[in-house]
Amino acid sequence: MKFFSVKSAGVALFISYSATMSVSCFAFAQTTLSSDWLDRQINKHPDIVSARERMNAEFSKAQGSKLPLYNPELSTGYEREGDGNNFNIGISQTIDLWDKQAVNVAIGDKILTVASNQFTYAVVQKKAQALTALINWQLATDKSVLAFEQEQQLDILLKIVTKRQQAGDLGPVDAELTFLNLSQLLNKTAQIQAQLTQAQADVNELLPDWRPDTQVYPEQGLGVTNFQVVEQWLTQHPQVLAAQALWQVQKNIAQYAMLETKADPTIGLSAGKNADDNIVGITFSMPLNIRNDYQANAKAKNQQAIAAEASFRAVMRKQKYLIQASTASLISNKKYLGRWQKLMQGRGEHSAQLLQKQWQLGDLNTSDYLLALQQRAEGLYAGIELQAQFKLSEVQWLLNVGQLNVVTKLLN
Fold it and tell me: Counting Cβ atoms within 10 Å, is residue 167 exposed (0-12), middle (13-18) or buried (19+)?
């Protein structure tokens, strides 16, 4: 079995965000995980379908905000006075004297920004969940393979011990130690198999068309080689942009509430007939904001805008420290994975052969041999977990800096 190739493959791909922005470098190894396939799977997920429809609903609301605030009003009347018939017909229109519609349009535009960024983050978050599930499935698979190899190794060892015991070369204690080690391993293997089953179910839930023999996660991860964070990544993160747009929405709502303290006039024209006389009339009405001047509502909306600004700054602050923490975690995980690869390079198979030879020659007793085999297995398990931890921290880092979509677009 081959664990963790240390060869570097792939090409360096440079992504420039603008002429004045820093340049970030990403390197990729060949993989069967396709960007188009991944996007199709994510877009089919019910959570994303739901998020898309919620975004479309906000888009529809925003379209309504661009329409005039007031519709004209038609009025008619009829009465009979003696032998005469009286009737009239009129039309009236409330005038948007303070241009409230312009503020309403601005609210709609900002709501579009909020909905768009919230949907963008929902997609990238679901993609991160899917990649995490693939990593965990690969982790469980590698552990399962190693556990079965250990089981087979102990089965073979048990047969050899039994034969040597019958020949008088080994005592009963050696056979008992082998039995005990095998029983412990069977329990561990059962647990690993349960983890593998759950991991596969998690992937299937997130990626409907996935099969274990297709769309393998890149062995070397997504290949990020430059961990320098571009300053604009924080301000361009979808969660930060959505929070900022929500703040702007509340500011516009507060502005609209202030305008509502000012009344809009209504002008009407009417025509009719009173007996034999023709009647033409003009009407004018203006609400008198005396009993309720709506200032309390305007004050409340302004306070909500202040709260929204604080929430925006809290989101940006939280994202800033998430980026710092995930960057440090990614660098640390890469460092220790590299140290493990350097330490274990070529030693996996070599150590197994050496231990077996020393045991067969009698230089190593059975108890020490079994302990050494267990330590070797723990070292390989540690490598499997270190590689998975590095990949997980890489996905989390890309999610936190808002560049996961950029990187996965470059997958072959």
Answer: exposed
